[in-house]
Amino acid sequence: MNESLKTNQNMGRGQISIDNVVKIYDPEGAAVMAVDHCSLEIAAGEICMIVGPSGCGKTTLLNAIAGFHSINSGSITMDGQLLCGPGKPQATPGSDRIVVFQNGALFPWKNVLDNLMFGPVMAGKMGRKEIKEKAFSMMADAGLSGTENNFPGELSSGVRRRVEIVRALMNDPSVLLLDEPYRALDSLTKSVMHEALLDIYYKNKVTIFFITHDLQEALFLGNKVAIMTSRPCKPKKVLTVDIPYPRSYSVVTDQRFRDLMEETSELVHEEAKKSFAAGEREG
Ligand SMILES: Nc1ncnc2c1ncn2[C@@H]1O[C@H](COP(=O)(O)OP(=O)(O)OP(=O)(O)O)[C@@H](O)[C@H]1O
Ligand SMILES: [Mg+2]
Questions:
Q1: Pocket lined around ligand 1, Cβ cut-off 6 Å
Q2: Nearest residue CA, atom 12 of ligand 1?
Q3: How far is CA 217 from CA 73, 252, 264, in A?
Q4: pLDDT tens, position by position, for the chain (283 residues)?
Q5: Domain spans of the chain?
Q6: Fewer CB within 10 Å of terminal CB in the chain, N or C?
Q7: Max Cα–Cα distance, the chain, nearest Å
Q8: Helices (H), 177-283
């Protein structure tokens, strides 16, 4: 095992159990069932990739974990503690579960260092000196040394995304929730981002819940991949990617990777077709 994986502080935190979750939106009485009796186990320190067609209910599930909205039934626990479920329909948002948004959420008027320090300073659990040291150490780990005085607008989109992840990790979360963070990137930039994310992951080993439409991205990054049904979503197949970390991009040409792509691409395609057909009927 990679040395940095063994020394990780987050090991043992961020185990999520999603049990029979149902979420129905009811805009003006036209009930939309987005999630249907969805169950999924995510181990602490695991990268769990959620793959599914557009509109199937992926973001809905993420929002339920984050506490951005309620669920109708079922439960979600983290490390054995109820986030939402019977008697508590909506999880309380907290810095133990941080969402990294697709369009980024860095403060444009703050430099990188101040962006990184913001969360822990607000939390007030550590002194400024300690927070600053942590920021510099995390910047070094993520290949961001030298960017501390830059403002987000002065950074390339790739570096900005790395800062966003590090900013989330500065709060010492148990789980990072990523909703298609690299959707808008070209495939070359994406591959660089993937390696950078894994580098950061090896050093922090935080649980990652990562939504994507891109099966190759899912298999490259994840050690668990949940392929979701078309709406309402629940896992159609959950597989373990038995390719050891650390992974470099050359893995995508390996036979094992190609076999996994082949094993899963038809499933993803089938659900996309169902989703498209349902859209045609509704639209
Ligand atoms: N606030 C809401 N009120 C009513 N319906 C909603 C609401 N949010 C989402 N929906 C509907 O719930 C379904 C699932 O939406 P969701 O955003 O979770 O899908 P998704 O899998 O994240 O899609 P995408 O891949 O396009 O991001 C969709 O049909 C969507 O229109
Ligand atoms: Mg979504």
A1: 25, 27, 32, 34, 52, 54-60, 231
A2: 34
A3: 31, 10, 13
A4: 344 443 445 568 999 999 999 999 987 888 999 999 999 999 999 999 999 999 999 999 999 999 999 999 999 999 999 999 999 999 999 989 999 876 678 999 999 999 999 999 999 999 999 999 999 999 998 889 999 999 999 998 888 888 999 999 999 999 999 999 888 778 888 888 898 899 889 988 899 999 999 999 999 999 999 999 999 999 999 999 999 999 988 999 999 999 999 999 999 999 889 888 887 566 5
A5: 3-96+174-282, 103-172
A6: C
A7: 59
A8: 187-204, 215-221, 255-282
Estimate the share of the chain in helix, then strand, then coil, as percent rounded to the nearest 5. 40, 25, 35
The number of the ligand nearest the C-alpha atom of 61 reads 1
Which stretches of the chain are DSSP H helices? 3-6, 58-66, 112-123, 128-141, 157-169, 187-204, 215-221, 255-282
* Residue nearest ligand 1's atom 25 by CA: 54
3-96+174-282: in CATH 3.40.50.300: yes
Q: Return the structure tokens found at 21.
A: 């979750």
CB atoms < 10 A from the CB of 281, how many?
7
Structure tokens at 111: 């430099």
Pairing of strands 81-84, 175-179: unpaired
Please report which ligand is nearest the Cα atom of 101. Answer: 2
pTM of the predicted model over 0.90: yes
User: What is the end-to-end Cα distance of the chain in Å, rounded?
Assistant: 50
- Nearest to residue 100, comparing CAs of 64, 60, 66, 49? 66
**In 74-112, which positions are buried (b, 16+ CB within 10 angstroms) versus exposed (e)?**
bbbbbbeeebbbeeeeebeeebbbbbbeeeeebeeeebb
Give the separation between CA 150 and CA 160, rounded to whole angstroms. 10
